[in-house]
Amino acid sequence: MKRLVHRIIFVLFILLIWQLFFKLNIWPNYLFPSPMMVFQTLLEGFKDGTFVNAIIISFKRLLIGFFISIIFGVLFGLIIASNEMIDETVGPFILALQSIPSIVWLPLALLWFSLGEAAIIFVVVLGGTWNMVINTRTGIKNVQPVFMQAAKTMGVNKIQLFWKVIIPAAVPHLITGMRLSWAFSWRALMAGELIGSGSGLGQLLMWGRDMGNMSLVISIIILIGSIGYLTDNYIFKKIENKVLTRWGLNT
Predict the structure, then answer these.
(1) Pairwise CA distance, residues 238 & 241, whole Å
(2) Which of 105, 124, 184, 249 has the maximum number of C-beta atoms within 10 A of its C-beta?
(3) CA nearest 218: which of 60, 36, 20, 7?
(4) Residue 92: pLDDT band by 50, 70, 90 thresholds?
(5) Cα-Cα-Cα-Cα dihedral of 200, 117, 179, 55, to 10°?
(6) Angstrom distance (rounded) from CA 194 to CA 106
(7) How far apart are CA 56 and CA 42, in angstroms?
(8) Is 213 helix (H, G, I), strand (E, B) or coil?
(9) Which of 34-38, 157-161, 188-192 has the lowest average pLDDT?
């Protein structure tokens, strides 16, 4: 409860600073709208269904790309972690790919898939895959040797060792990887929707910019930030904490 009060006070402080800057009239109202103007835009957007439809479309793309990136990331991570030569040759390049901003992939997406859903999902998949590869590889590599030695002493074969020892021991890293991949996929989605067709949040953001509607632009930014905050703190963070607590890695 105390933490919630602190967060509410912080938000109110930001709104106060925002209102003070608006009152200074440094920029025209259409370039720097007041908090009330943005609130009215949010209210109208939800009332006429524009924001709801955009969120649904964006989430559909995000979920498809996210689950594909999880599958690819876990598979690639397992392959890299299971072979020392592949790890030494391919591993450093995965980190290099992770450092590439999602927006850099847009030209390839346009050339390979043209405008449409496939191009957006392609960018989302690339945004989330590399982080999942890194965390899967780290999780497998960091399994305590004593666990594997104890399992071998009890006579388990390689398949049992993999499914009953290595994978369970790597689960905390996998969950953390999923949480980070979700964040990167979300960012990649916004980049992909800047060029894609259909009305997602990214498309509304571009439309607001083209029309000079800064109230709409700020509304979309607030929506994106709020959705990211809610999904991370109330879904992925809770799952991660439960897993870490169950594995004895959190108190």
Answers:
(1) 5
(2) 124
(3) 36
(4) confident
(5) 20
(6) 9
(7) 16
(8) coil
(9) 157-161
